[in-house]
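Q&A FORM
Asked by: J.P.
Topic: structure of Manganese catalase family protein

PROVIDED:
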Amino acid sequence: MFYHVKELQYDAKPSQPDPVYAKKLQEILGGQYGEMSVMMQYLFQGWNCRAEGKYRDMILDIATEEIAHVEMIATMIAQLLDGAPVHDQEQGAKDPAVEAVLGGMNPQHAIVNGLGAQPNDSVGYPWTARYTIASGNLLADFRANLNAESQGRLQVCRLYEMTTDPGVRDMLSFLIARDTMHQNQWMAAIEELEQTQGAIVPSTFNQEFEKQEVSYSFMNFSEGEESKTGRWANGPTLDGQANFEYIQNPKAMGQKPQLQPGPKFIHGTPPLDLRIERGSGKMDPAHNNNQPLQ
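REPLIED BY: S.T.
REPLY: Here is the structure written out as tokens.
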């Protein structure tokens, strides 16, 4: 159960309206790595978690905080849209430069949302649950969470550089700091799980059933040998089970594919060494593929 507190987690007060920047800010609200994505990802990871205790509590702690971040950004977008589009349109009629800037505004902010935020990214693509990961394996999920926080922090830092508004920067600096904590949080949880479950996901699968002769081979499929010096190609493996093997110019290990002709009702292209007898639909395997069809 959730309770709503009327105050925001942190201030979301722009110094002045900026409908163009409001459009940019939509990315960290409804984009692939926006706050809506991590909010829903963490909520479903927590609700689905079958390991009661500290991990479930921790996931839902951060999930609940992400709801607050969605509220902060939505509030900021709404305030950046104050006075738009009427005032800017009037100015645009007098000043071509202002009119050009106005062209960068998302018209749906006014037409559809009544000068409010929307659950879309910065180009208007709707948020989708396909952005989220909740697999039931905590180590796999926490690694996905670390990626989400890394990409999210990167985008917020870029947006910080795209504005000089002190109020907007103040809110973004708070979000950047929380992303710093969240990255450290997921790294700590990953480290703890790896110590008890191992580094490879899933740890419960019997490794005897995998093709172990290639389990730790780095295969160079590129021109040159620069990748040979990487940690992934030399020394002990990170799971502690073997040593990395480097293979230059790896050879094909499989068969040459030979598929059977499709059934007649598919109407596919017959093999080159077969011909179709006109009118019968029957194939003549004796026909030489260099001779024209009759």
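FOLLOW-UP: The CA atoms of residues 233 and 244 lie 5 Å apart.
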